[in-house]
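Hi R.,

Here's the input for the S-adenosylmethionine complex you asked about:
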Amino acid sequence: MAVIGTLRWRKLFWFEAVATILAVLSPCSTTGFMRVGTNFRKPSVPTARPRGIPTSRNHCSKLPTLKMMGTFWQAMHSLSIFTARGLGEAVDFSRFRELLDVGGGSGAFDIELCTRYPNLSATVYDLPFVTGIAAEKIAESGLSGRVTTHPGDFFADPKYPAGHDVILLSMIMHDWNEQEDRGILRKCYEALAPGGAVVISELLVNDEKTGPPPAALMSLNMLVETLGGRNYTPSEYRAWLEDTGFRDVKVIWFESAGANGAVIGYKR
Ligand SMILES: C[S@@+](CC[C@H](N)C(=O)[O-])C[C@H]1O[C@@H](n2cnc3c(N)ncnc32)[C@H](O)[C@@H]1O
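And here is the predicted structure with S-adenosylmethionine in place:
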């Protein structure tokens, strides 16, 4: 009994520790977590966060104070540098020349991947306020010659910037519902030339939807924090990619804080 009690306590401690980290990383989720017991998403039950959050569909750019925003982007950048390192080791980007990082945030993936792959250049495509943050990080890294920014809105813009042979979606899809994600994938497909690839980097939930725990916890965070997002399975991504026209879809697993796998599809 004592052993079972200890195991249970350890599990609880671990769950709470991760939930706390997620809450700190994403400050606007704190209120949602306080109300998680009463606000699991169902068609008839409103999500934890009120719908119609002021003027934007995006949580990351509308955090309550500048201080919280600074904390969020520092934490996000540090997490993403490590995740990008894992992705860059697992997926060979040496065959690509021009990366478009859709919702690229602070540019952590672009900085890390361009450092690792000297022939790669990158464009961070994000909301105008966020590309300003990315520009500072890029300048600090000394990569301004190879990493640029392109302010825009991936829902409102009819087309994504062209001329790239690989598009990255890191921690984007889990923010949105299936319909919105399919719309993003369609625009990625249209922006790529034949032979180009899309790389979805996420904490993937297994096809049985039983775990692994980091992906399940992140999915819980997304259920609480967003209006329609959750973490998806490789099969779900495969179906959406193939319906969009992508071919040779494959999944590459790796270990890192912000992702455990990449789902890659090619435009033929
Ligand atoms: C969870 S962050 C991921 C950032 C980055 N990809 C990474 O992994 O470090 C989600 C990103 O999507 C961006 N985003 C949200 N809505 C957007 C929109 N409508 N147009 C462009 N970017 C958007 C946010 O500004 C934010 O940078």
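One thing worth noting: The first strand starts at residue 98 and ends at 102.

Cheers,
M.
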